Amino acid sequence: MSRTKTPGITLPSAQPVTRKNQKRQAVFRRLGLLAVVCALSFLTAHLIMLDTQRLPFEDMRLKTDLGGMVIAALFPLLVLAGFAGRRHWWGLILGLVACGSAVLAGLLPL
To answer: 21-54: string of b/e by CB count within 10 Å (b at 16+)?
Structure first.
């Protein structure tokens, strides 16, 4: 006599379906996290660019170039740190802290 409750359906044939669904959900979670981290990094970079426009330099081109250099160095690091820190959502928390600090820097008087 078979150990399964319904004849014709065995346990090994049911497992790959659940594994496939688990893998699909994991991929969707990672893609969602990557999209959120990229959007948050872009927002942080944009806020930093706006903050560099408030610097006390006379030349607007100097401010723009300085902001562009900071963004070029910081944006890939924000994306990598945000996506690499998947355990316990550390990457997303780091991105939120960076974005929050850029917002606070823009609100504080220079």
So the answer is: eeeeeeeeeeeebeebbbebbebbbebbbebbee
Residue 6 has what DSSP assignment? S
CB 49 within 8 A of CB 71: yes
pTM for the full predicted model: 0.76
Give, as one character, the DSSP assignment of residue 24.
Answer: H
User: Hey, what's the torsion of the CAs at 55, 58, 61, 64, to 10 degrees?
Assistant: 10
pLDDT means per 10 residues in the chain (110 residues)? 57 69 91 91 94 90 93 93 79 91 88
